Each structure stands twice: as C-alpha cells, then as structure tokens.
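Re: beginner question about structure tokens

> Can someone show what the tokenized structure looks like for a real chain? I only ever see the sequence side.

Sure, here's an example I had lying around. Input first:
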Amino acid sequence: MATIIKFDEKKFNEKRPFTERVVESPNLLIIHFYLKKGQKISLHTSPSEVVTTVAKGSGKFFIGSLENYEILKTGESIKYDSKEPHGFEAVEDMVVEAVISPNPQQQKLSL
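And the corresponding structure tokens:
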C-alpha cells in the first residue's frame, strides 16, 4: 500500500532536535529530523546504509569525524556506508530525511 510522506515544519523544537519515524518496515526506516540553527545530531554509526537528504535549510554533514564534513543545502544528499561514523549540525534551520536500509532495529531482532 502506498504511503504519503509529508514534512511538518511545526515540529521544530527550540531546546533540542525533533526526530520522527515516518516509515518502519523490516527493510526500511525513514526518519525526519527538524533542527534549529546550531542544533546537532551527534556522531554515531549504524549497521545499515544511510542516505540523508536536506529537505530545507543547510548544515554540516560529518563524514567519519567532526573535523571532516560537507555543507549540504536544500535538495542535496549524502550516502554513508554501514558502520561509517556520521551526524549533522544545522547551519540554519534545517529539515533532514534519513533513509536507512535495512532497518537496524529489525537486524537486532533477528540475531
């Protein structure tokens, strides 16, 4: 069954980034992140591949470390390999969509 996915800019939070799981299946996880300028998703890893796309705004997208990053703007994406350290910080108010495959929670359940 088809699923309509929409962004809702009312979800920005002044105190911390807001995250929302919008699609979850065994093969796929899609998360929306709403960050005000200066907010950050800390460097972390995933056992899955991750593609992040900036839906609005711009930010620093960390590649392996906080010192190595690319600034991405609306409409730009970056793909991370499994287990590659990544994270991001909003240079201006930013909405990000992360597509993660396969769903890492499903991988943990199958072990």
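Each token stands for a local structural state, so reading them left to right follows the chain. The chain has a mean pLDDT of 93.
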